[in-house]
Amino acid sequence: MHWLARLAHSAEVLGLILAPPSLCGVCMFSLWLHGFPPGIPVSSNIPNGNCSSRKGLNASCFVHEFTGIFQGQSVHYKMTSVCGHVMSLDFIAKYNNWDKVDPAELFSKAPTEKKEVNPKLNMVKFLQVEARGCDYLVLWLDCDREGENICFEVMESVQPVMKGAVLEQTVYRAKFSSITDIDIWKAMNSLGEPNRNEALSVDARQELDLRIGCAFTRFQTKYFQGKYGNLDSSLISFGPCQTPTLGFCVERHDKIQSFKPESYWIIHVKVFKGKDNPLTLDWNRVKVFDKEVGQMFVNLAKTSKEAQVESVTKKEKRKQRPLALNTVEMLRVASSSLGMGPQHTMQIAERLYTQGYISYPRTETTHYPENFDLKGTLKQHTNCRLWGEEVKNLLSNGIIHPKKGVDVGDHPPITPMRAASEEELGSDGWRLYEYITRHFIATVSQDCKYLQTTIVFTIGTEAFTCSGKTLISSGFTALMPWQGIPLEEALPVCESGDIFTVDEIKLIEKQTSPPDYLTEAELITLMEKHGIGTDASIPVHLNNICQRNYVTVENGRKLKPTNLGIVLVHGYYKIDAELVLPTIRSAVEKQLNLIALGKAHFQQVLQHALDIFKRKFHYFVDSICGVNGT
Questions:
Q1: Is residue 226 in a domain?
Q2: Are 314 and 451 a contacting pair, CB within 8 Å?
Q3: Mean pLDDT (the chain, rounded)
Q4: Residue 445, class by beta-carbon neighbours within 10 Å (0-12 exposed, 13-18 middle, 19+ buried)?
Q5: Could you tell me if 432 and 492 lie in one domain?
Q6: C-alpha 397, offset from chain centre
Q7: Looking at the structure, do residues 317 and 331 belong to the same domain, yes or no?
Q8: Which residue among the candidates 360, 368, 550, 572 is catalytic per the annotation?
Q9: Regarding beta strands 13-17 and 136-140, do their DSSP bridges make them parallel or antiparallel, or are they unpaired?
């Protein structure tokens, strides 16, 4: 493995090319996103072992130095990292006093400033010390909008100390989706520039969330704490994405509470032929909601003691292999099948990515690029004891071209990038990696094929049916057995006109049942459908409503709203339903996407959204105070 890829396996990097003139005249600074953990044998991966490593002044980020080639010239490299965002947006100190500032002022009057996310890390000073005198900056941050935003935070931090009058001419952006030799080489040989539009879309979201969230949160926290002393939370927060997310959970709770069971009746029938086991038939009318009507149909059926076969049909069907894996589907499966919450899943996925086991885990795309090396990726798994034989058969017989999914132009689908074992990854890491790998292999496998047999009977004047499935070819379900065709008792051999004996026929009363509480997987689906959050932020919003004590996670990863969450959402509905419905936030997300694409102006989108929520805030305050006579 190339030395740069080995470094990349340890972190997402920001890079500077720096070099004291006394060494080679040119210095490059390379920067990745997460810190290099101690003990990495960096020097063994550099040509001639010519690498020194040390801790930076913040004692959290390592700095690796070595000589190499950049754009045909000998340079001195410095590689180091940041720890997520360098800066965060906040109001200036004067407007952080809850008692002296009217929350309405936060929409426009209150100035904002960028502050270091973690002052103890002293990240800006650290970057400036390392970047001083450098000629070039190469940025290896996460290749998404947040990563693009961090690029500009780094650039603004080091601009005063780097060489050259125009920093932009000496800054390069590495674009990559996995940390392998090939991808690292490719990224290094096709460096581009940071995308300011994508960074601005993040700036807009940050400012909207800050101003809107703080204004509503401060008002309702002080208001409710002043009137009710038994609240289950000291902070009654509001969030433009968080609140609609909570709204979905409360909406389901309300349906459960208002549900009234209703009785209905079905006809239960069993028939047999010879010594075969009795068959249970399904009534073609399914059910009726009037007992007397149901009894009438039973009486009509009971006029005959025989069931005649009207038709026997056999049809070959397919269960299609899955689309390539994107973030939302990974989160859904991790919650529903692996019992892992979205926030925990993303933390594990990020670790697998930075260690080089999977490709970039934040993507909306479900379509492999045309030049994606499917066979090369498969070959890495031929020796796996769990799926090695399946992989060998695929390579021998020929892989199936994956189903055409959606390419949104961000990153390729989530894919295993090298073989691994449970010992390497740990329990949860292995479980997620195993699913990702099985899913990938399934996308290039055959569809599952089965034969569906349907027998239609008549008993008196009523029609009944039974059906069964027989597996023809397991296809991709050999890799994903939980999606396989369940084993069923074989249907008797028969043909049209055959006669069966009626063994039992009776009317059975049943009741409709209420819906269950939303699962995390179902909520993720709703958020994606209504445009609430992004593939990267959905886990954050879910985590927030749990941490704020608005919902609790019950058995089966079901989300049950607390009294506090229910009261809040009901209050929003009474005053202004749009505060909790997904429509406005979905529209804002679309505008933010236009900023990222360069099709909308940052300031215009920001001001328009703030104006809408400012008017809603004033109406909310006036309404809630008026209702309570204050």
A1: yes
A2: yes
A3: 88
A4: buried
A5: no
A6: 34
A7: no
A8: 360
A9: antiparallel
CA angle 251, 253, 256 (to 5 degrees): 115
Cβ-in-10-Å burial (0-12, 13-18, 19+) of 54 comes to: exposed
Output the pLDDT for position 153.
Answer: 95
In a domain, 244, yes or no: yes
Structural domain total, the chain: 4
Range of the domain at 378: 327-443
- Rounded to whole angstroms, the Cα distance separating 126 from 436 reads 37
Alpha helices by DSSP H, listed for 22-170, are 123-131, 145-158
Q: What is the pLDDT of residue 553?
A: 96
Within-domain flag for 90: no
Place of tokens 């000589």: 67
End-to-end, the C-alpha distance of the chain in Å comes to 70
Are residue 122 and residue 7 in the same domain, yes or no?
yes
Closest CA to 279 of 491, 110, 581: 491
Q: Are residues 461 and 547 in the same domain?
A: no
**In angstroms, rounded to a whole number, what is the distance separating the alpha carbons of residues 133 and 465?**
81
DSSP character for 209?
Answer: H
Q: How confident is the model over 489-548, as pLDDT tens digits?
A: 788 889 999 999 999 999 999 999 999 999 999 999 999 999 898 888 899 999 999 999
- List helix spans (H) across 193-312: 196-227, 242-258, 291-301
Q: Are 532 and 244 in contact (CB under 8 A)?
A: yes
Separation between Cα atoms, residue 172 and residue 612, nearest integer Å: 38
Pairing of strands 171-173, 136-140: parallel
Percent of the chain with pLDDT over 90: 68
Q: How far apart are CA 613 and CA 89, in angstroms?
A: 19
Q: Find the farthest-apart pair of alpha carbons in the chain and give their distance in angstroms, rounded.
A: 105
The answer, as to whether pTM is greater than 0.90, is: no
Q: 456 and 586: one domain? A: no
Residues 31 and 165 in one domain: yes
Told to judge if 360 belongs to the known catalytic residues of this protein, a careful annotator would answer yes
How many of the other CB atoms lie within 10 Å of CB of 439?
24
Q: Which residue reads 């008026």 in tokens?
A: 626
Sign of the C-alpha dihedral computed for residues 333, 337, 342 and 347 taken in this order: negative
Distance CA 285, CA 283 (A): 5
Q: Are residues 393 and 503 in the same domain?
A: no
Asked if residue 364 belongs to a domain, the reply is yes
Q: Which run of H or E residues covers position 268?
A: strand 263-272
Backbone angles phi, psi at 418, to 5 degrees: -160, 160
